[in-house]
Amino acid sequence: MFQKALLLPAALLVIILLQGPADICRAADTGPKNMELKSPSGKRTARFPHRKHQELYQCRECHHGSKDGKITPYRENMQVKKCVACHNENEMENPRFNSFKLAAHGLCKVCHKKMKQTAPTKCSGCHIK
Ligand code: HEC
Ligand code: HEC
Ligand code: HEC
Ligand code: HEC
Predict the structure, then answer these.
(1) 120 lies in a domain?
(2) N or C terminus: fewer CB in 10 A for the chain?
(3) 14 alpha carbon to ligand 2 midpoint, in Å?
């Protein structure tokens, strides 16, 4: 009898322990540590140390949403979409940013030029192939 009475609370505790950390992960999904970025055509890949950049910059420096064709700033716990979900010829009217390449160069290269003492600016600094 004593053991049965303990069984339910114990089972609940196990469930809480198993779910707790998963919820924390979901609440602060910071994405992969390192990435190899690729356009749909896949001609070149770019290496991207995501975590290293997260240590230097706020999420909103790179991530945004959109409304009526305009950027909406990144909010805490926003679902982060792939750039190409919006930056493609069908969704984006602005021809300066209507592909992953243009969006990525617009973000990465522009900042790297400003930070050229430390950040790579040559093609081979980002493109491994
Ligand atoms: C210097 C720019 C930069 C910063 C700062 C940054 N990210 Fe990212 N993040 C990216 C890029 C680029 C990708 C790849 C997007 C793609 O594949 O289209 C990405 C991918 C992600 C993904 C995976 C999305 C997917 O579906 O594959 C998540 C989640 C994410 N970032 C969350 C965050 C959070 C949270 C922060 C702040 C703590 C942050 N990022 C800071 C540039 C950045
Ligand atoms: C939910 C849709 C959406 C996603 C996802 C998205 N963007 Fe954008 N982005 C936009 C819109 C809308 C604009 C404004 C375009 C304009 O001004 O005509 C924009 C503008 C930009 C600009 C222009 C610079 C500026 O500040 O005006 C850059 C660069 C850019 N995005 C890069 C990225 C990168 C890199 C990613 C992925 C990490 C990304 N975007 C993800 C919708 C999105
Ligand atoms: C807001 C500024 C900013 C943006 C946006 C940014 N970077 Fe950087 N990046 C830096 C700085 C600063 C460094 C140098 C960090 C250091 O080593 O101190 C760097 C370093 C790097 C390095 C070299 C890291 C190493 O360990 O050798 C790569 C590769 C890189 N960035 C790729 C990218 C790519 C790809 C993007 C776009 C998806 C991007 N970065 C967007 C600022 C930026
Ligand atoms: C700061 C990082 C960075 C630098 C420097 C950079 N790129 Fe990129 N480039 C990217 C990212 C990120 C993408 C999107 C992912 C991909 O397709 O590799 C991209 C995409 C491309 C693509 C599209 C590939 C495809 O499959 O459609 C080409 C072509 C390209 N870059 C050429 C260049 C050339 C040429 C240079 C030098 C003049 C250069 N890039 C410098 C980050 C960079």
Answers:
(1) yes
(2) N
(3) 43
- Whether 15 is covered by a domain: the verdict is no
φ/ψ of 35, rounded to 5, equals -135, 155
CATH assignment of the domain containing 76: 3.90.10.10
Residue 2 lies in a domain: no
Q: What is the pLDDT of residue 120?
A: 97
- Helix segments in 28-99, DSSP class H: 50-56
Average pLDDT over the chain, rounded to an integer: 85
pTM reported for the whole predicted model: 0.91
The Cα diameter of the chain in Å comes to 72
Structure tokens at 32: 């992969």
The residue to mutate among 82, 111, 123, 129, having the most atoms of ligand 3 within 8 angstroms of its beta carbon, is 111
